[in-house]
Amino acid sequence: MKDIMRIKCLLSADIEMLLNQQIKKEAHSSAMYLAMASWCNQNGFDYSSDYFFKQSGEEREHQLKLFKYVLDMGGRAISPDVNGIKQEYTTFREVFEDALDAEVAITQSFKNIAAACMKEQDFVTFEFLNWFMKEQREEEYKARRALELFEVIGEEGTGRWEIDKHVNKIKYDSETAGA
Amino acid sequence: MTGVKTKATDRFTEVFGTKAGTVYQSDREGCWYIDFAGKLVKFDYRTLLLLKKSIYRVDIEQLLLDSSKSPEIEMVFICACNHCYFLNLLQIIALKELLEGTFAMLELNQILHDRLSRMVI
Ligand SMILES: [Fe+2]
Ligand SMILES: [Fe+2]
Question: What top-level branch of life does the organism fall under (chain B) (predicted)?
């Protein structure tokens, strides 16, 4: 008897499900950053708003990258429902705290998928995930650095104005960045 | 009529069967035939997975506890494949059992293929 299941699709049902969940998470991140861009813009933090607009676009690209991978492997990619996006923030700082929390959660999520790939020896998907692992290094770095500005610069006086100006300049370009 | 059926089943491999029904695979057509609830329905890769999803999604326990409906009430399943089943609760349980066995066998088949014919040394 032919192994039609395998001929049609490289992904196991479990991995396909995990990737679809990740697609939803990336869509959620994209929408979250867009809401942050809106809040920052409304409150006069123009540089931060730009930064979050860019982040939102990147998350959308992550979503599509995963989406196309599932399709390329013969799987069923599901366009996700996205809801429950937080629109209001109490402080400027809270926006960055949420951003870092979200990135940490995404890194954990990718680690879980990689662990599942290892377990069932799906080294093809495992290798595909490498790109995201490296991306998460940068994403977490940037989010952490942004939050640190609140300590380094301080929020008093023109502090927030200063922080806002620096957010857009954060770059992950240390020695390990290229490796 | 019987002749046609025998001829058709020759090309089929039985994947899994219960008292309630049988699932066959056609290697030539790359699809499956489910003999259940009095009809033989063809499913391809995509629609078989859709059927699995719609059956597994049914909360059987909740239906059993739901006193507002009598168990004889038939339910409709549209599985996006030009076919629908009208099933009562017992038939849903039976179809789920049939599909669970089928997917277990298909998984086993994959393991066999991996171990026996896809050996790369
Ligand atoms: Fe992302
Ligand atoms: Fe991200």
Answer: Bacteria
